[in-house]
Design goal:
The protein has about 110 residues and is an all-alpha fold. The chain folds into 2 domains: about 40 residues; about 70 residues, no CATH class. It is about 75% helix and about 0% strand. The chain is built from 4 helices and no strands. The protein is flat and about 55 Å long. It starts with 5 loop residues before the first helix and ends with a helix.
């Protein structure tokens, strides 16, 4: 039954991503006068981004290893892909959608 709605889910996902991106761009546009005056050293920002991505990747690999121990094996790439895709909706109201999305994508 889910296969029947696969195209609809894909369109809804793309639409949600575009709406989210539009919201972020709008917020940056509105805050730009305040942000323009800031002086930011690029090295700490890049290092923070690398550490954040590394941490999330490690969480994804550990989650994949946990699933493998529970007889639901995933490759490292599959675990990382599912983890990052499900993180997109982590901050949606209810804070449960990322868990449901992760379970759905891991099937």
């Amino acid at each position: 039954m889910i296969q029947r709605y696969r195209g609809l889910f894909r369109i809804a996902g793309i639409a949600l991503s575009l709406i989210s991106l539009g919201y972020i761009i709008r917020q940056l546009w509105l805050a730009w006068p305040q942000l323009a005056g800031l002086t930011v050293a690029p090295l700490p920002v890049v290092l923070a981004l690398l550490c954040g991505c590394g941490c999330l990747t490690l969480f994804a690999l550990l989650w994949g290893l946990t699933l493998t121990q529970l007889d639901a094996p995933l490759t490292a790439w599959q675990a990382i892909r599912i983890w990052f895709l499900s993180q997109i909706v982590r901050y949606a109201p209810g804070n449960i959608w990322h868990l449901l999305g992760r379970a759905y994508l891991a099937r």
